[in-house]
Design goal:
The structure is a single chain. By secondary structure, this protein is an alpha+beta fold. 34% of the residues lie in helices and 23% in strands. It has a six-stranded mixed β-sheet, sandwiched between helices. Strands 7-10-11 form a three-stranded antiparallel β-sheet. The protein has a three-stranded antiparallel β-sheet with strand order 8-9-12, with helices on one face. The longest helix has 21 residues. It is elongated, with a radius of gyration of 23 Å. It starts with a helix and ends in an 11-residue tail after the last strand.
């Protein structure tokens, strides 16, 4: 069964129903195509609708798909309407979390008699369980990230800026074979460590700083995600206590991962460890999230998610403590859920590195 067939089955798409896929990550998952346009499909047919710039690319990347090319005066919606009319489609499921109001008006204009209903994230639901090929891509991306981090460590010196460290890290991941970056790299030193999603600045690294790096490579279309916090020289005693607390929370939660466990319950383990250490309210984000084609996928390890972990899920475990005016610590591994628990895909040292 192809990914498209499995998604159609999961969504319960009937004989007179079609689907429209606009989201790039879903187009890639279902077809392998990485260009622009849309996919119009149903039981027994699947078509990529694009323009001249991408037709050959689509034919190469998605050999199981027909490729239709738009022309002047004929829109993507017009060609989708033509296809659905030929196939007797009366009801279309579309990505209502992706299509803009303007684009939706274009769809309705091209197909005035069509009934439109939500696809209800059926492609994303199909994407939750990673197969062996997907796991291999994610693990390769994690290995690249770890090697880049190890290469960066000797270059962390007093006077180097956060931006300079970001550039070094990004370049090294690309040099080691990353296709691209999974997301914008975070480098946060000293007092900037209290900013969960700090933007690397011109702040110069100083002795005594704790420095947080949150970064990832992308390989074969799949992301890695890891965070490490290191110290340049001896950190303040309070920061050392914070590090030890975060490390305990991270390792305890990673060890608790297993199929059948509730995502909310795993998050609660970290929250209790951090609260009991006296840092109530200083861990304000979820414990983790799934990783795949997109850097943030479902399920989430958070208080808002009651989903059950399954074999094939790939999730991050990334507790943190953030103290304004002092700094912060976050430690993160990407982990694959297995039949016997979980396997970490990130092997960089987690014990505090004092450089």
């Amino acid at each position: 069964m192809t990914r498209m067939e499995r998604m159609l089955q999961l969504a319960g798409v009937g004989a007179n129903e079609g689907v429209l896929i606009h989201k790039p990550s879903n187009m890639f998952y279902l077809s392998g195509y990485t260009g622009e346009g849309l996919i119009a499909a149903g039981n027994g047919f699947q078509v990529i609708v694009t323009d001249f710039r991408y037709t050959e690319q689509a034919e190469r990347q998605a050999p199981g798909y027909d490729v239709w090319m738009v022309e002047k005066g004929v829109s993507h919606a017009d060609l989708a309407a033509k296809l659905f009319a030929e196939k007797g489609i009366a009801r279309v499921r579309y990505e209502d979390d992706e299509v803009t109001m303007r684009a939706f008006e274009g769809l309705k204009k091209a197909m005035p008699a069509m009934e439109f209903v939500s696809l209800e994230n059926a492609p994303e639901k199909a994407r939750r369980i990673k197969d062996e090929k997907e796991l291999a891509c994610i693990e390769t991306a994690c290995n690249i990230s770890c090697k880049a981090f190890d290469a960066l460590l000797p270059r962390i010196k007093p006077g180097v800026t956060e931006k300079q460290l970001q550039i070094m890290l990004d370049y090294t991941m690309l040099e080691l074979g990353a296709d691209s970056l999974a997301f914008d790299t975070i480098v946060a030193s000293g007092e900037n460590g209290s900013l969960c999603h700090a933007i690397p600045s011109d702040r110069k690294i100083q002795l005594g700083d704790m420095i947080t790096f949150d970064f990832g490579a992308k390989k074969g279309g799949y992301c890695s995600d890891m965070t490490r916090t290191v110290a340049l020289g001896q950190p303040k005693p309070e920061m050392k206590k914070i590090y030890d607390t975060v490390l305990l929370a991270q390792e305890t939660c990673e060890a608790a991962l297993a199929p059948g466990k509730c995502c909310r319950d795993i998050d609660s383990i970290a929250r209790k460890i951090i609260d009991d250490a006296g840092y109530q309210g200083r861990f304000g984000h979820g414990l983790g999230h799934a990783v795949g084609i997109d850097i943030h996928e479902d399920p989430r390890l958070s208080q808002m998610c009651n989903d059950i972990l399954e074999v094939g899920h790939v999730v991050t475990v990334e507790p943190g403590i953030y103290i304004p005016g002092l700094g912060g610590v976050r430690i993160e591994n990407t982990c694959a859920i297995t039949e016997n628990g979980a396997r970490t895909l990130v092997h960089a040292q987690k014990a505090l590195l004092i450089l």
